[in-house]
Amino acid sequence: MRRDHILGSEPIEKLQEEMDYIRRVAVIANEERSKAKTNTTFNKVRAYYEDHPSCTQKHVQRALNLSQYQVQNAVQKLRNQWKDK
Predict the structure, then answer these.
(1) Which domain holds residue 52?
(2) Nearest to 48 by CA among 38, 37, 58
(3) pTM greater than 0.85 (yes/no)
């Protein structure tokens, strides 16, 4: 029995192309979701520092319930923006 008969009338190459397309779409969607989450975290940290200018990163972590890595990345972005001005 041929493989084409088992999988249906579509050739294997076409099915592989469709699976590759689905994988690419999933990767793009995951990247967009990650960017949105990063921007939300950055906005929270920035707003907190505007209200509490002399606080430490540890205070921000505890107050916003974020990880050390998230706060460090947001603070680095803030510093880069400040340097550019």
Answers:
(1) 3-84
(2) 58
(3) no
Residue written as token pair 């707003």:
47
Pair of tokens at residue 18? 């469709």
Question: Who wins on pLDDT, 31 or 47?
Answer: 47
3-state secondary structure 31-82: HHHHHHHHHHHHHHHHHHHHHCCCCCHHHHHHHHCCCHHHHHHHHHHHHHHH
Residue 45 · residue 71 · CB < 8 Å: yes
| Contact call for residues 59 and 52 (beta carbons, < 8 A) | yes
The first and second tokens of residue 50, run together, are: 């505007």
Domain count, the chain: 1
Average pLDDT over residues 61-83: 91
Question: Of 7, 27, 6, nearest to 16 (Cα)?
Answer: 7
- pLDDT tens, position by position, 37-61: 778 899 999 999 999 999 999 999 9
